[in-house]
Amino acid sequence: MSYTMRVLEQVIKRNPNEPEFHQAVTETLTSLQPYVDANPEYEKAGILERLCEPERIIIFRVPWVDDSGKVHVNKGYRVQFNSAIGPYKGGIRFHPSVNLSIMKFLSFEQVLKNSLTGLPIGGGKGGANFDPKGKSEREIMAFCQSFMTELYRHIGENVDVPAGDIGVGKREIGFLYGQYKRIVNSYDSVFTGKGLTYGGSLGRTEATGYGLVYLTEEMLRQHGDSIENKTVVVSGSGNVAIHAAEKVQQLGGKVVALSDSNGFVYDADGIDIDAVKEIKLVKRGRIYEYTDYRKNAVYTEGSKGIWGIKCDIALPCATQNELDGDDAKELVKNGCFAVCEGANMPSTSEAVKVFLENKVLYVPGKAANAGGVAVSALEMSQNAMRTSWTFEEVDQKLKEIMINIYNNIANVAKEVGHEDNFVVGANIAGFKKVAEAMMQQGVV
Ligand code: NDP
Questions:
Q1: Shortest CA distance to 369 belongs to which of 266, 250, 274, 240?
Q2: What's the distance, CA 216 to chain centroid?
Q3: Whether pTM exceeds 0.85
Q4: Fewest CB atoms within 10 Å of the CB: 64, 90, 179, 350?
Q5: Nearest CA to ligand 1 atom 10
Q6: Residue 86, CB-side half-sphere exposure with 13 Å CA sphere
């Protein structure tokens, strides 16, 4: 059995009951196999064994008190996966589904994603199985403060720099950062995604969604096409989905659907982004409320149905494994020719197989959604330089980074004889830089 497959078998055996982590490692190692096995120095240095074992995992209790005086306890995590090319960097997720497997898959993916940005950042991820939905402002603050009262000792601007993710936006980052600063008594730039009044970067909120669309547009351009006049389905209606939809429409595409975990809305005339922003960002409401704004729009219960809508381009921007093999077949049948992932691992392994077999232009999240973390790294640079760039400057840098990522993954895929297989391209391109840094730093 090859070195790569032996390591994969060992990872699965050593980490039982972690299906999402197995899925992410399997997808990555399978596409790295020919490349890694052709370069025996990787085996000699134990690179894959080290790449698949987090440098450190912190799991902690998060006790907090609700508005009625009842005590709750959640589980908090920070997985510091790999710091070969820079301090750990990756978001914090608050969602009831959070567990060790999800934290490990996200931080494993983050290592290669951060490498692809070309910026000096390692990979990590954290979170808690806390559900912010339906909580009062004070309860959210109490939870964030308790979470940070443990986390602060493990992070730092040269150690580990968290950011937002599902359930963690500007509000939560403000509460987390405020508590960090209070404990350490220092204005470190230990978080990204901060508010603009205390060190945040213009363009960070939009970065993941905009970056996703910049990469998609570049890919289409290099295939003699563009987003203009295309029908696009975007899943989710959070930070990534809203800004992806907004950029698609700025480029002349028509977004006809958005979803949340309860269902999806279809608007044949094109989604009204301002209405969605008001519902989701101002009122913190549900996507079904969209039909109050646009009378022709139709709401359907159950979020999976969104993949049955006819479209040219699909941008899954909600969560992991939201699009399975049958959904992928349905998309292909309806003529969808490009799928770029705003979310992390939204397509199951079967779905990815369907896309590749049918020559769909498919870009995995670790490349397509890297714009968020890239602008986070730009936020770190601005903080270090004690300066702030304009929105246009940040947006221009984001665009350049996404075009570079596309060229990098496309060129690597071509070099290894898999033209337009961006799974292979992203994994090998991301891996090469991390592996080289690890080799140069010795066995650590
Ligand atoms: P938000 O919390 O802003 O939005 C998440 C959206 O996904 C909501 O519409 C939510 O619906 C939906 N969703 C969450 N869980 C589920 C589920 N189990 N089933 C169906 N829908 C679900 O998060 P983001 O927009 O920030 O993140 C979305 C994805 O993008 C995640 O995979 C994240 O890891 C990834 N990502 C985010 C980055 C960022 O900068 N924010 C950077 C790179 C990747 P509901 O309200 O019903 O829960």
A1: 240
A2: 16
A3: yes
A4: 350
A5: 260
A6: 23
Nearest to 203 by CA among 370, 333, 376: 376
How many Cβ atoms sit within 10 Å of the Cβ of residue 136? 10
What is the per-residue pLDDT across 374-388, written as a single tens digit (0 to 9) for each?
999 999 999 999 999
Identify the architecture of domain 205-368 in CATH: 3-Layer(aba) Sandwich (3.40)
pLDDT in tens, 212-264: 999 999 999 999 999 999 999 999 999 999 999 999 999 999 999 999 999 99
Q: What atom in ligand 1 is closest to the CA of residue 95? A: 15
Residue of the CA atom closest to atom 47 of ligand 1: 261
How many angstroms separate the alpha carbon of residue 435 from the centre of ligand 1? 30
Pair of tokens at residue 271? 């989604």
CA pair distance 314, 172, nearest whole angstrom: 30
Range 340-363 average pLDDT: 98
Domain with CATH 3.40.50.10860 in the chain: 54-187
- Ligand 1 neighbourhood includes 342 CB (under 6 angstroms): yes
Minimal-distance CA residue to ligand 1 atom 5: 238
Which residue, by CA, sits nearest to atom 46 of ligand 1? Answer: 260
CATH code linked to domain 54-187:
3.40.50.10860
| Residue limits of CATH 3.40.50.720 in the chain | 205-368
State yes or no: is 125 an active-site residue.
yes
Gap from CA of 286 to ligand 1 centroid (Å): 14
Distance from C-alpha of 378 to C-alpha of 401, rounded to nearest angstrom = 11
- Which residues 6+ apart lie within 8 Å of 207 measured at CB? 243, 371, 372, 374, 375, 376, 394, 398
Q: Assess whether the C-beta atom of 240 lies below 6 angstroms from ligand 1.
A: yes
Q: Is 357 exposed, middle or buried (0-12, 13-18, 19+ CB in 10 A)?
A: exposed
**How far is residue 67's CA from residue 15's CA, in Å, rounded to a whole number?**
38
Q: Which residue from 358, 257, 294 is spatially nearest to 248, judged by alpha carbons?
A: 257
